[in-house]
Amino acid sequence: MKTGTAQQKKNLAFINDKSPILDLTCNNLVASGIEVLFRSENIKDGLSQLSTLKTLPQVCVIDLDFYDKNILAQLQELRTQYPTIKLIAHSDIDTEKVVNPLLEIGFASYLLIGSDADDFKKAIEIVINGRRYFSMGVAEIAKEYFHNN
Fold first, then answer.
1. Rounded distance, CA 36 to CA 58, Å?
2. I want to staple 119 with a disulfide (CB 3.0 to 4.6 A). Which of 6, 95, 109, 115 is the partner?
C-alpha cells in the first residue's frame, strides 16, 4: 500500500557555453529521472526559451564567463524576470570577486568544475527545498558573504 503523495518530478534548464563536462552531467541527470526542459548557450536564448514554457524549471544551472560584466547584468535580468527559479552556478573560479556578485544576484548554489552528477543531484534537491549548497572550494566565501549581509 502506498502512502503519502507522489514526489514531484524535478526539472531544470541549462545555460552554458559549450561544455563536454556539462553534456555528460546533463545525460547522467536525465538518466536519473530529472527532466531537462531546455539547454541554451547564452542567457538571451535562455530567456527566449523560458518565455515559451508553460511550466518554468525549478532550477537553472548556469556555466558562463562570470568575469564578464555583461553576463552579470544579464543574470540580474534573468533573476528579475524569473525570481522563482533557483540558480546554480557551475565554474572553475573560486574567488570572492566572482562568487560574491553571484550571491548578490541570488544564486542558491555554486558548484566547482569537478562536481559530478551526484553533487548536482544533491545541490538540486537542496535548493528546491529552499536551502543553499556550495562546493567546498567556495563554501567559506559563501559563509563569510552571508555572515556579513
1. 10
2. 115
